[in-house]
């Protein structure tokens, strides 16, 4: 069984497209596509400029990075007197 979740964010001057951002297909490499200052191509067949692929590499797996970040946030709250962020729950 293949599980995948993609995210596409589009705005007035560009877009960002993330593939497999929840359960990555590769453990230590993540890629995304981005384009800025976009406009429709001739006859509205695609966009210009073409999106470019960006790759982010890491020495640790996604789960390990998540644990490291969580521990860093907890330590900054306990050791530096910072407060946790408040999350507003609204009607979506």
From TrEMBL:
Native species of this protein? Rhododendron simsii
Read off the PANTHER family from this record: GFO_IDH_MOCA-LIKE OXIDOREDUCTASE N-TERMINAL DOMAIN-CONTAINING PROTEIN, PTHR46368
Q: Which Gene3D superfamilies match?
A: Dihydrodipicolinate Reductase, domain 2
Protein name, UniProt field: Uncharacterized protein
């Amino acid at each position: 069984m293949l599980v995948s979740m993609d995210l596409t964010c589009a705005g007035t001057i560009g877009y960002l497209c993330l593939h497999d951002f929840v359960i990555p297909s590769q453990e230590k490499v993540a890629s995304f596509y981005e384009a800025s200052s976009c406009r429709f191509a001739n006859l509205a067949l695609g966009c210009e400029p073409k999106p470019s692929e960006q790759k982010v590499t890491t020495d640790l797996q996604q789960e390990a990075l998540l644990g490291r970040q969580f521990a860093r946030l907890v330590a900054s709250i306990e050791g530096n007197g910072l407060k946790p962020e408040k999350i507003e729950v609204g009607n979506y």
